[in-house]
Design brief:
This protein has 733 residues and is of the alpha/beta class. It contains 35 helices and 17 strands. The chain has five domains: 200 residues, P-loop containing nucleotide triphosphate hydrolases (Rossmann fold); 196 residues, P-loop containing nucleotide triphosphate hydrolases (Rossmann fold), CATH 3.40.50; 103 residues, Winged helix-like DNA-binding domain superfamily/Winged helix DNA-binding domain (Arc Repressor Mutant, subunit A, Orthogonal Bundle); 73 residues, DNA polymerase, domain 1; 103 residues, Arc Repressor Mutant, subunit A (Orthogonal Bundle). The radius of gyration is 30 Å and the shape is elongated.
Length: 733
């Protein structure tokens, strides 16, 4: 069938009420109507669905749309029915239907009432369905989310690899339309080959979504990240958003934190029953719920144009995943914020899961994760990086500050010397260790490994002790990303030299990398498309608070760390607490500690805020879900009953070391513990006095430092740990 441009515009107006096409839609639809194989690559929100919906409504017979998710099918069918006067125009066929419902669907197809049939590849494989389609008029077959066909795609489904055989079993000459929102050149050729597309016309739209703002923040402590997310969402009150996480447990936990903070949120993952998942999805579409916290199962094909933000709590496994998921924001053309939290530890966790996989799959996954790492750590325009990945050239001057690196360029340094040290260290340890050991080595950490293998006697040991750990992690990773070294997954991630790295050592050259790229551990970095404001550690205020802490410590005759530890001061210098209520929400500050020590700090912060006209971060008070750990409750109750610590550890199946960790967490969170009964029974009076005196005079509460000073007096690590707990409980809380 051929058609004119006028016919197409009339059909568009008649069936959908639109008066013009977007981008390549018109020529794509014309190609489908001419019965040609058609390959469509169009970003999410570009109007991909219309490319098969309109020709299906215009042509004789029924178009078969192969779709990966039942939720997606229902959504698409509801959408098409909304434009039509009768429901029979679109159906889906999958395992969720009863036999009676399936018979009704097939009867409507035979009667010529159904123009679009959405079907899962698993349903299409059934022989009875193949036979049925052989007996009816099929206008064309559209394969939606076609990247699932490619083993390089980010959502590999084995059934998608058999689609070609199924189409040929129905009829030899059915036109095929393949559609995807993301495909690298490698995936594109894989799709064409696997669908056996002949003389196909490819239509590739620009991957640039100029209304999306891309930002990556360092992933620090869980509580900090959750606080940052709450603040981010509060600034977008009543707007829709999706938070992607890797684990089911995280979906539940983050949804709870959001709800406690009056944000309407719901978890979504494969472990929930179908009814709950369906209700959650409907609630999101109907705006009963503002935020969905989901594993990757959510959002594919969801037709919600006004999603204003997408947050990645965990970094995705591939750039394709990231691009597809961020593409669910701003489909209406208005601004969407895409925020990802990144920690290299997350990448290391993902790598552990690959160890038992076949070599080919492991190598492919590593390659995809290396690209994600490069994206997260790049200091260049993020938009340029993404578009280059999909084979599209882009002038980053066009970004218009719509990514964090263009809006807030990072200061750079020439790390030529540091990279030399890193490469020399790898050779010195004979290319036999992973990144963590290498960082410990250049930092000069006194770990058991360093001492047992006598690494602390090697020339390069402690060569980089002046720089923080995370700086060195970044140096080693940048060396990896630029091809100077590689990580050998076969041998559990050992760092190996490449020829390029050896050449660099022979003739070192400039090596630019950003300063403080992913190691600004203090505070929450808040730079968003809509606010442009920053909530970062205020170094001037931090210095004022440290001086004040020193004065207060002198006045009260206690060590400074007893009053407030550094992370608490950093939180104050980020959040500017101006009341006792604010102060009680600072990390590591209990109500008791606030009452005891906070007054002068609040006064100093107030004065500083007024003098410097500081705009405080909005919605500072972030409520945390109460930690009702059974272990903690049981430990506190057991201590109240004066049960020996060994018996408490045994009853909870904890080692003594684990028990001390729990006790430390209880005390530093502001709870008083009376362990005098145990101390009097187990530690002599002279040792108690020596340890207490040490902590009164020390500038740190480090147990290791205390042991160095006190071990000559035959005082044990365990004795120090116990007396330290009493000291902190009595003095700080």
């Amino acid at each position: 069938m051929t058609t004119t441009s006028v016919d197409l515009h009339e059909a568009l107006q008649q069936y959908f009420g639109f008066d013009k096409f977007k981008g390549n839609q018109e020529i794509i639809i014309d190609n489908v109507l001419r019965g040609k194989d058609t390959f469509v690559i169009m970003p999410t929100g570009g109007g991909k669905s219309l490319c098969y919906q309109l020709p299906a409504l215009m042509l004789e017979g029924t178009a078969i749309i192969i779709s990966p998710l039942i939720a997606l099918m229902k959504n698409q069918v509801d959408s098409i029915r909304g434009y039509s006067q009768n429901d029979e125009v679109a159906h889906f066929l999958n395992s969720s239907l009863s036999r009676t419902q399936m018979r009704k669907v097939k009867a409507d197809i035979v009667a010529g009432k159904t123009k679009l049939l959405f079907i899962a590849p698993e349903t299409l494989t059934k022989e009875e369905n193949i036979q049925f389609f052989q007996s009816v008029d099929v206008s064309f077959v559209a394969v939606d989310e076609a990247h699932c066909i490619s083993e390089w795609g980010h959502d590999f489904r084995p059934e998608y690899r058999r689609i070609k055989d199924m189409i040929e079993a129905i009829a030899k000459d059915i036109p095929t339309v393949a559609l995807t929102a993301t495909a690298t050149p490698k995936v594109q050729s894989d799709i064409v080959k696997n669908l056996n597309m002949k003389g196909e016309q490819s239509f590739i739209s620009s991957f640039n979504r100029d209304n999306l703002y891309y930002e990556v923040r360092p992933k620090t402590k869980k509580a900090h990240v959750q606080k940052s997310i709450v603040q981010f969402i509060k600034k977008r009150a009543d707007q829709s958003g999706i938070i992607y996480v890797q684990s089911r447990k995280s979906t539940e936990e983050i949804a709870r934190v959001l709800n406690v903070n009056d944000i309407k949120a719901a978890p979504y993952h494969a472990g929930l029953d179908a009814k709950t998942r369906s209700k959650t999805q409907d609630d999101f579409l109907m705006e009963e719920v503002d935020v969905i916290v989901a594993t990757i199962a959510f959002g594919m094909g969801i037709d919600k144009p006004d999603v204003r933000f997408v947050i990645h709590y965990d970094i995705p496994k591939s750039i394709e995943n990231y691009y597809q998921e961020t593409g669910r924001a701003g489909r209406d053309g208005l601004t969407g914020d895409c925020l990802a939290f990144y920690s290299y530890k997350d990448i290391l966790k993902l790598e552990k899961f690959l160890r038992d996989k076949p070599v080919a799959e492991r190598e492919m996954s590593m390659q995809l994760m290396d690209e994600v790492t490069a994206y997260a750590e790049t200091t260049a325009c993020r938009r340029k990086f993404l578009l280059h990945y999909f084979g599209e050239e882009y002038d980053d001057s066009q970004c218009n500050d719509m990514c964090d690196n263009c809006r807030h360029p990072k200061e750079k340094m020439d790390a030529k010397q540091e990279v030399q040290y890193a490469l020399q260290a790898i050779l010195e340890l004979e290319e036999n260790y992973g990144i963590k050991t290498m960082v410990d080595f250049v930092k000069g950490k006194g770990t058991k490994e360093m001492k047992d293998f006598r690494f602390d006697k090697r020339p390069m040991y402690a060569i980089g002790k002046e720089q923080p750990d995370l700086f060195w992690f970044s140096v080693f990773r940048q060396a990896m990303l630029t091809g100077l070294i590689r990580k050998d997954i076969e041998s559990y991630g050992l760092l190996k030299m490449e020829d390029k790295g050896r050449a660099f050592l022979e003739k070192p050259s400039e090596f630019m990398m950003s300063i403080n790229h992913d190691f600004e551990v203090e505070g929450d970095i808040e730079t968003s498309a809509s606010s442009g404001k920053a909530a970062v550690l205020d170094n001037t205020l931090m210095k004022i608070l440290k001086d004040l802490r020193r004065q207060e410590a002198k006045r009260k005759n206690v060590p400074p760390y007893v009053i407030f530890q550094d992370p608490s001061l950093a939180d104050m210098a980020t959040q500017y607490p101006l009341s006792m209520a604010d102060m009680a929400n600072i990390s590591g500050v209990s109500k008791g500690k606030a009452t005891r020590y906070a007054k002068p700090f609040i006064a100093a912060i107030k004065e500083y805020v007024e003098e410097n006209d500081i705009e405080r971060p909005m919605d500072f008070v972030v409520k945390q879900v109460a930690n009702k750990s059974k272990s903690k409750i049981s430990i506190i109750q057991s201590i109240d009953r004066k049960i020996p610590l060994e018996d408490i550890a045994s009853s909870l199946s904890l080692s003594m070391e684990e028990l001390f960790e729990e006790l430390d967490a209880i005390v530093t969170s502001g709870t008083k513990l009376n362990i005098d009964y145990y101390i009097e029974e187990n530690i002599d009076e002279y040792s108690r006095e020596d340890i207490t005196e040490y902590f009164m005079e020390s500038e740190t509460d480090s147990v290791e430092e205390a042991l160095k000073e006190l071990q000559e007096d035959d005082i044990t690590m365990e004795e120090i740990q116990i007396v330290r707990l009493k000291f902190l409980s009595d003095m700080a809380n």
